[in-house]
Structures are given as structure tokens and as C-alpha cells.
Amino acid sequence: MPMKKSVLIVISFLLFMMAACSSETTEEQIQGHLEEAVSLEKDFEEQQSKITELEKQEQELYSKIINLGMDEMDKIKELSGQAIDSIEKRSEAIKTEKASIEKAEEEFAETEDLIAEIEDEKLKETATSMTEVMQQRYETYHQLNDAYKNALALEKEMYNMLQTEDLEQETLTQQINEINESYQKVIDLNNSFNEHTVDYNEQKKAFYEQAGMEVNYEKNPTGNKSKEE
């Protein structure tokens, strides 16, 4: 009957697809997960230019505010409000980039069991080293993300302070110092993150070369940008 024939065709197709997938070597399956992880970081990459632009806008607003006198409080409040809006947009952007990183991290984790199946001990050692570096990269990113969120919270607090007419210079100076300290932590973690990224790219390249694979290594994966005060 036609219906039975259709079912048989579908089953045959599925069996063919399963056979095709199973024909991949362990190394090829690992490569598939690694490249998919890179693809999943696309949103992370796209947010970087957005965050950088918002940082520049906020810095320009800050420069305008500090050049105003206390008799221009209405203008200070207006610009401070715009700066807070910019901070809120950055907060949304880092949420998006974090979600992207977390998806990539989940995909990368799929390589763990596969690496254990590699028969060549030297190749397995290279793959294990590559995995350890990437795990350090992810861990550093999460620390960086937390540090950046803390810096944004301090900045937002400062702009709310600036809208207070009886704000004392000492209080403002203390807040600015805290912001600078928080961004120094961001910069340090960002540098560490970028170092792990470079190290990972080198480790992955070594793994592919040892496994006899070819791939485009550019932008696999990228580093992060941070604000510098």
C-alpha cells in the first residue's frame, strides 16, 4: 500500500542518515562541536561593537556633565538621564552576549566524552589541553561579566548622585575612585580572557593539524572588548 511504502522510505532515509553520522570519526565529531561553538558565539561578537559605541556615547555625556556648573542642574539632570539610558542598553547587551557564550559553552561540553574516546594518546593529550584552556576562558568570561555588571551599577549610582543638588565633592570623588577600580578589574580580566582566547586558538590549531584536518582559524573565537576610563 502507498502508506506503507512511504513509511519504509522514511525509515530507510533515517537509517541512511544515522549511518552517515556514525561514519564520522571521533575527531571529526569533535571538530563539528568546536566549530558549532564558534558559530554560537556570533551574538557575542555582534554585541562588542554595540557595547563599544555605547561606552563612547556615555563617556561623551560624562565629559559634558563635569564641565557644567551647579547652576546648570537642569542640563546636568538631562545628560545624566541620557547616560543612565546608555548604561541600561549596555546591561541588555551584556545579557545577550552572556547568553551567546553560555550556548557555546554547552556545545563545547559535548566534546568531553568524545575526547575520552580518542585512541591516539598524543592527540588525546593535545585535545585535553585544548579543553582545559577553553574552560579557563569560559570561567574568566563569567568573572569578567560579573565585574562589568558591577562597574555599570557603580556608574549608574554616580549619575543618580549627580542629579542631587547638595552632592559633596568628596562623595563624588570616592564614587569615581570606586568606578575606576572596578574598571581596572574589568581591564585585567579582559586581558586574561583575550590571552586564553589566543591560547585556545593555538591549541585548536595544533589539534586539527595533528588530526590531519583543515580549517579556517580566523576569528575562532574572538576576544572581548572592555571600557577603559
Structure description:
- Helices cover 83% and strands 0% of the residues.
- The chain contains 7 helices and no strands.
- The protein has helices spanning 2-22, 26-40, 42-66, 73-109, 111-116, 121-162, 169-211.
- Helix 6 (121-162) runs antiparallel to helix 7.
- The longest helix is centred in the C-terminal third of the chain and has 43 residues, at 169-211.
Shape: elongated
* Regions with little confidence, pLDDT below 50 for 5+ residues: 1-20, 223-229
Strand proportion, as a percent range, falls in: under 5%
Task: Characterize the main sheet.
Answer: none
Cα Rg: 25 Å
Q: Secondary-structure element order, as H and E?
A: HHHHHHH
User: Helix share of residues?
Assistant: over 70%
How many beta-strand elements? 0
Treating each run of at least 4 consecutive H or I residues as one helix, how many helices? 7
How many angstroms does the end-to-end distance come to? 74 Å
- Helix/strand class: mainly alpha
The whole-number mean of residue pLDDT values reads: 87
